[in-house]
Specification:
Glutaredoxin; binds zinc ion
Length: about 260
């Protein structure tokens, strides 16, 4: 292949990649047939049969979205300036496409200033659960996913990547999990593993530990989210402190 032809192919691939990124991030709406909007929050979804509902359930689904939007307003980081678009996938194929190949996650958020795009993996509205392609710890309540991702959205000023510089990942994710009041990891198993020192390298367990650390600071040390953000201690320091506390006293932070 001559140099000129190689450059042309590389150029075409680059253009296709840019088109894909623009479509998958900024034009998600074209992949969904229905939209429900309440003030600054919009939910995008497809035929409701694809989410295990009947056609007659549409009004109650819209009402559910309305109530969920009101719950978002109770978020301590709520910001009415933020425009939140939530795209609810009805298939793994659509999520894989829209998530830019981070296809095993439950959901993800992209922020550009006040514009926030939340993409949520395959959802079953008959049970109100989101199910990812992971083999274990892959199910979460839809509501907790929306609360987790919207906390990222409310907290992010320019782009979520910049959050990594202002706050350690464990604290950012721990705060979101604490507000969502749920982890994909089972609480009992998580606490048993934690207190016995049994290792688990899964992302699900890591997020469980992040939530545990923030719950300790909030419930045991009685710190506000603002104080938690300013705190200079690292994750292992916090986790070592928690290890001194009996199981029954830790467990109540989760309920
Ligand atoms: Zn997150």
């Amino acid at each position: 292949m001559n140099k000129c032809k190689k450059k042309l192919i590389e150029g075409i691939i680059l253009i296709l990649l840019v088109i894909y990124l623009i479509f998958s991030v900024f034009c998600c709406g074209i992949f969904f047939k229905n939209k429900y909007t309440n003030e600054n929050v919009s939910f995008y979804y497809n035929d409701i049969e694809n989410y295990n509902l009947n056609l007659s359930d549409k009004a109650s689904l819209d009402n559910y979205f309305y109530e969920l939007t009101n719950k978002l307003k109770a978020n301590p980081f709520y910001n009415p300036e933020k425009k939140i678009k939530i795209f609810i996938c009805d298939s793994y194929g659509l999520y894989t496409f829209l998530s830019n190949i981070i296809y095993k996650s439950i959901g993800q958020t992209r922020t550009f200033g006040n514009h926030n795009f939340i993409v949520i993996n395959k959802t079953d509205f008959s049970t109100k659960k989101v199910i990812s392609q992971n083999k274990t710890n892959n199910i979460r309540n839809f509501e907790s996913v929306v609360l987790h991702e919207s906390t990222h959205a409310f907290r992010t000023k320019i782009h979520s990547l910049f959050n990594r510089f202002s706050l350690p990942v464990w604290k950012e994710e721990g705060i979101c999990e604490s507000i969502a009041s749920e982890s994909s990891y089972k609480i009992e198993t998580g606490l048993q593993n934690f207190l016995s020192g049994k290792s688990d390298n899964s992302k699900s367990y890591k997020y469980f530990e992040y939530r545990l650390a923030v719950l300790y600071m909030k419930n045991y040390e009685q710190l506000s989210y603002e104080e938690i953000i300013k705190d200079k201690r690292n994750l292992s320091e916090i986790l070592n402190n928690i290890k001194q506390i009996p199981y029954k006293d830790i467990e109540i932070w989760f309920y």
